[in-house]
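FIELD: query
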Amino acid sequence: MTRTGPEQPTAPAPRARPAPRTLGLALSLAAMTALALSATGCDTVTDKAGEIVSSATAAVASAAQDKMNEVKDGVNATADVKAGGTSTDGDRTVAEITATNPKDQNADYTIMVNFRDDSGNLLDAVVLNINGVAPGASKSGTARSNRTLSGATTAEIAQALRH
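FIELD: result
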């Protein structure tokens, strides 16, 4: 007698487990390959990591410049602004930035601050606003890095606009 109706699904065949010797050989080969790559490719890995960091830093600097470009009717005021020394606040690098308004009316400042290492390499860039600086007065704000920076850093005024 033939049975009609839906066919019953068959269970997949169980996966074969590698023999312990084969597994051990594969693990040993993987370990030796990793050791060889780390011994011979350390510079390559370091170079690639450096390229990634440089690319990310360039993107941050570009975003900061885009923010500066949004300021309408701003005049160059780099001479009005000074950067203090850097320190750490939690896991971020900070610097006190001071704007001195030489004009006869209140002014707002938009300032791009670059954080650099001892070799002058750009590590990070941030934009800071210091608003409502009275005529002939000074007002300070804190520039805070976007990420953790390692090593000695300095803050520099890359651009400042008074508006």
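FIELD: remark
Residues 11-40, 44-50 have pLDDT under 50 and may be disordered.
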